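Re: that chain you flagged

S.,

Sorry for the slow reply, it's been a week of failed gels. I finally had a moment to sit down with the sequence you sent. For the record, here it is as I used it:
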Amino acid sequence: MSVVPLLAHLFPPPRPPPSVLSPGRLPGAGPDATTALLKNLKDNHERSHIFFNHFLFHNHAAHHLIALYALGGAAPVLDAAYEDTHLDHMRDAFVAPEGVTITEENFTDYLGNDQYYNSYLRYFQGVVLEPGASIPSALEKYIFSDHYNLRYPQQGKQQPQMLNRFLEILLHPIIHVGYGVEFGLPGLIAEGLAWTAVHPAGATTLITRHLFEHEQPKWMPRSGSRLRALNILFLMRRDPRFPSRRTGKLEYGAMLRALGEIINKYAEMWDCEIKGQDDLERCLEEIVWTGVLMYGVGSWDGDDAEYRADFFTAHVITSSLFLPSLCAQLSHRSQTLLLRAHFLTSLTWWLARGRPGFRIQDFVSSPLPPIPNTSTRYPTTFPGPQPAPAVCALPSAASPYAAVPNAWLPILANALVHPNEHLCKVQRALAHFNTMYGHRKPRFAMEFLAKDGVDVDPEYAYLDGTMFLRIAWLTGAALGWVREGEANTGAWDYDVFEKAAVEEMETAKRFGQAPM
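Prediction finished late last night. Pasting the structure tokens below so you have them in one place:
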């Protein structure tokens, strides 16, 4: 197969979402946006490595482009996002050492080694383009089968642990494959599976111990009497064995080694066993509210404080967006494995960020945009000149709802033109969650949480469907309303976690040793 037809097969025009639970797409301006998207995805596929440096920093170009496309971004916006935000720092693609070809026999020999990304990519190109191949068969085999996680006796140099790798280093492989599944792009699925293969199986080795090695512990509540995800968070908040400060990069691994079994026991308490659609929808919603609290409320220190927009728990939000599309391709067993693995990984990142509490009552006490509120650090009106509605505008010319009838529209418009590649992904996820769960009223969670027979955090009574807009507003304000003339603050909270890696990279650059 020549290069041009190969790329055409790997990157066909996007398909509709695979599930009614998947996010919808905003209308665009016509075929030029699709042309620009596919052109740039193909260029990124051929030109760049999946890590943009040797410190395993991720290539986000495809994520950025598809999120903009899904929000209705025009072709010039997609081209500028790719050329101005990503191309200046990408690491060129290269052939693996000794030109190694990955086969079934040597599949495990090079896992976790980014030098062999190109070889795994060629392997998975063959998988997704094989006649009769399907997305479900590829995912079931390479991510969820016992053979590609634990082999007894061990075959090759290491255990595959592919589900571990799928959620490793801030969940990027699941996001990448998720985009491929949602938009029907085999090239993205091949990239994501290859990316999975060259990710280390580090902190998330907890997943193997949690899902593939353990029988049900004797202390586990009997089937049907396990706990909801939010109740597990409340139990963990009160457990003195966990640290209440944000950990550094090295401390993160040490924490998981020391406390991994305790974390696993909490994760095993979650009432998640998918036997039908009702189970799936309940568990997906629980994951959404868990992520909303971890990122949205966990990043908030009060109306007068800077919103921290935690970079790490933001990935809990963005990765959970793809769970409906992925689950639409999977058996009930694999749906259970995926959701449990995601929940466990989310817990580890929340713990790493100091397991912040959830002052929900205070968080929801401020007026929602566009109702004016200038008494907070982030006023609930957009900066710059305001529209002047006509006298006939609904509900009245003087109403803030006449000028901003739907606050989501300018929030998403800002995300479309903002140069930060993570903002559009977070805002797209929050907007979708709002369409799914924005109807939830205060106290909706209390009845089913009380059925668990454990203490329920009284703050959960204030959880409601306004959370998504509140978090999107704070995130947009913290990063800057660039469409309205503000600067890009780039104000994601990396804290001390990435400091060591950044310092190491800068030192290497000074000595001419940083391969890019």
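What I noticed first: Residues 277-297 form the longest helix (21 residues).

Talk soon,
D.
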